[in-house]
Amino acid sequence: MIKFTKMHGLGNDYLLVDGMKSAPPEEKLSAIAKALSDRHFGVGADGLILILPSRAADFRMRMFNSDGSEAEMCGNGVRLFAKFVYDRGYTRERDMEIETLAGIIRPRLRVRSGRVTGIRVDMGAPRLRRSEIPMKGPDQERVVGERIRVSGRRHEITALSMGNPHCVLFVTDVEKVKVDEIGPAIEHHDLFPRRTNVEFAQIMGEGEIRMRVWERGAGETLACGTGASAVLVAAVLNELSSRKAVVHLRGGDLKVHWNPEDDHVFIEGPAEEICTGETRLDEGI
């Protein structure tokens, strides 16, 4: 049996599994994430997050997409993680460090009357060099306005890493974009050796951006914290936005700030618990 807590950040939902004392077998994690995330035959989620002890930080986070692939980190997932360990009494600190495959991520909890009301996360500095995204081709400091051919059409992209790879396209109307066609085509494009998340962004006015996201390994989701961070950075690089904006996602809004003083990106948004439960896994897993 596996005990889980289902949580969401703006509709981006994950199953959190407490591995502070014991965790599922390493060789089965991918299969477990895929089976539990299935919305028809499993519990249903965009992925699975493991809460683990760390030697480098306060806690360690591992995150698996719904297709079983492991991701470097997840902005919404970090907020869920922080709320989970605070609510379960693993820490009383409102500032914490979480070890991820993308490095140390630092969330700050806003707490009122013992209840977490919001979480601000220091996502670190964006990585703009082509080799750091990573992206094939001659190395360069920035990938801005590059043209690629996808689904029979040419698209202009801006690519960067927020600890995981992102490819941003600016469009006139996000609701008319064929996300389920263009998204997977770019995700699996030969330019991206580790695949990529794909964001479609519409500038709404000063300080407002609307976006949809195709997440690597999960498909279109209602929200993505690293994606919202990447969209703001890309908008600034293309001189379409100032360094602060509210990013409107299908699941709700995130406040995003690219701080010029330390080059770090900060996001702020909610984290909500849905339910707890336990499930028996098939013997074949």
Give a description of the structure.
With 285 residues, the chain is an alpha+beta fold. The chain has 4 helices and 18 strands. It has an 18-stranded mixed sheet that branches. The longest helix is centred in the first third of the chain and has 13 residues, at 75-87. The chain is globular. The model has no long low-confidence stretch (mean pLDDT 96).
What is the compact description of this entry?
The chain is an alpha+beta fold.
Helices and strands in order, then pairings?
Layout: E1 2-9, E2 12-18, H1 29-37, E3 47-52, E4 59-65, E5 70-71, H2 75-87, E6 98-100, E7 103-112, E8 115-122, E9 143-150, E10 153-161, E11 165-170, H3 179-187, E12 197-205, E13 208-215, E14 219-221, H4 225-237, E15 244-249, E16 252-258, E17 265-269, E18 272-279
Parallel strand pairs: 2-3, 4-6, 11-12, 13-15
Antiparallel strand pairs: 1-2, 1-18, 3-4, 4-5, 6-7, 7-8, 8-17, 9-10, 10-11, 12-13, 13-14, 15-16, 16-17
